[in-house]
Amino acid sequence: MITLKRYLDQSTYRDTCQESEYGLSETILKAYCAGLTQMGECGVDACPDLAPEFSRGLKRIVESLGPLPAKDSVIASEDAVRELLRGWGKQVSSHYDQKASDVKDLLLVMTRTAESLGNKDERVARQIDGVSQQLKSIVNLNDVSRIRASVEASARELRESLSKMTAEGKALVEHLRAEVSTYQTKLEKAERISSCDALTGLGSRHWIESRIQERIVAGSHFSIVLIDIESFHTVVETYGNLVGDLLLKEFARELRSSCRFTDIVGRWGSDEFVILMDDAGAENRPQVERLRSSVSRRYHVPGRTGYVNVSLAVTTGIAECRGGEDVQELIGRADQDLCRDKALRVREKSA
Predict the structure, then answer these.
(1) Which CATH class is domain 205-350?
(2) Alpha-carbon span 317 to 334, nearest angstrom
(3) Chain CA centroid to CA 269, Å
(4) How do 223-229 and 264-267 pair as beta strands?
(5) Pair 240, 295: CB distance under 8 Å
(6) Which comes out higher in pLDDT, residue 156 or 143?
(7) Which pLDDT belongs to residue 129?
């Protein structure tokens, strides 16, 4: 990552700083913030399970800069990004080390079971071979009593070998079944964790994108709705991150309870949510308006010095899936509709 402190100390930057008393030109600030945002999006490809927290950390840093940050704020943001990257790198390394360890454990169990089965079969084979040799020796006997006694002894040994092989086989199968069940539980738990947003409990962005892709491949008729909480960064700046997280949890619960049973609800970003509806876009607009009315209300959550009341309002964007488009194109159209709704709300407030 480019060291901004070095750039800020250069004389060419001091000349540029004459444009603004806060230090950074608008072009440099936009490029820096865009780089941080892109870094967060790349984190989804690197490790989808841990990417949401990484993206939230980068977004907080971008929001902390403001429109015209001072030089000290930019230098502090660089240190914050460095620490965030180091911490996230350690988490990703530990995450994949744990996955590799689980796979190694499972392979060891299967290897030991295979070795045990192989040794068992070899031991039984030797016992059966001994019985065969005894049976061959009977041919040379003339005493019927001795022949009968030898056959009975051989039969007993054969039954004991087969019974022991059966018992050992059952024990090994039960052991392997228990081990597989344990790892299946671990995998199911990992899938549940990756499919849920850690803060709100709604579907994660990666999981929602997968559901959208499944419907596109199947040629299903559906729409998506993007929901953005207006001026949520101002709420966080006023009351702090803890109140912001509690508000997002309460908002998510209200949103989920206001949706239909067939709707799939997820968290798209910091203060953005997405709903997947199995209806046409035009048919969904009355339902979306009811949702807007339901979730746009005053929320009561604990703060630093007591409970606070915060009014939240939302803007929405709807897009119906068209044949031949991918997930990003569909999301892009919904985002355009969201921007139009934001502009409409601004005009209504200023009128």
Answers:
(1) alpha beta
(2) 5
(3) 13
(4) unpaired
(5) no
(6) 156
(7) 61
Find out whether 142 and 154 touch, Cβ atoms under 8 Å.
no
In this structure, are residues 222 and 334 in contact, taking their beta carbons and an 8 Å threshold? no
| Torsion sign over Cα 54, 45, 1, 67 | negative
- Distance (Å, whole) CA 222 – CA 299: 31
* Amino acid found at 17: C
**What is the distance between the terminal CA atoms of the chain, rounded to a whole angstrom?**
45
What is residue 266's DSSP assignment?
A: E
| Phi, psi values for residue 264, rounded to 5° | -105, 120
**If phi over 0 gives left and psi between -120 and 50 gives alpha, with beta otherwise, what is residue 160?**
alpha
Q: Do domains 103-194 and 205-350 have the same CATH topology?
A: no
Q: What are phi and psi of 270, to 5 degrees?
A: -60, -60
Domain layout of the chain by residue ranges: 4-95, 103-194, 205-350
Most confident of 11-15, 179-183, 190-194, 331-335: 331-335
Distance CA 100, CA 89 (A): 16
Q: CA nearest 37: which of 50, 24, 56?
A: 56
How many Cβ atoms are within 10 Å of 251's Cβ, its own excluded?
24
- Of 329, 319, 318, 317, nearest in space to 213 by CA: 329
Mode of pairing for the β-strands spanning 223-229 and 272-277: antiparallel
Q: Tell me the three state secondary structure of residue 277.
A: strand
pLDDT, one tens digit per residue, over 269-316 is 889 999 999 877 667 788 899 999 999 999 999 988 889 999 999 999
**Four-way CATH pick for 103-194: 2.40.128, 2.40.160, 3.40.50, 1.10.287:** 1.10.287
Write phi, then psi, for 267 (nearest 5 degrees): -95, 125
d(CA 301, CA 307): 5
Q: What is the pLDDT of residue 104?
A: 53
Written as six digits, the tokens of 168 are 């050992």
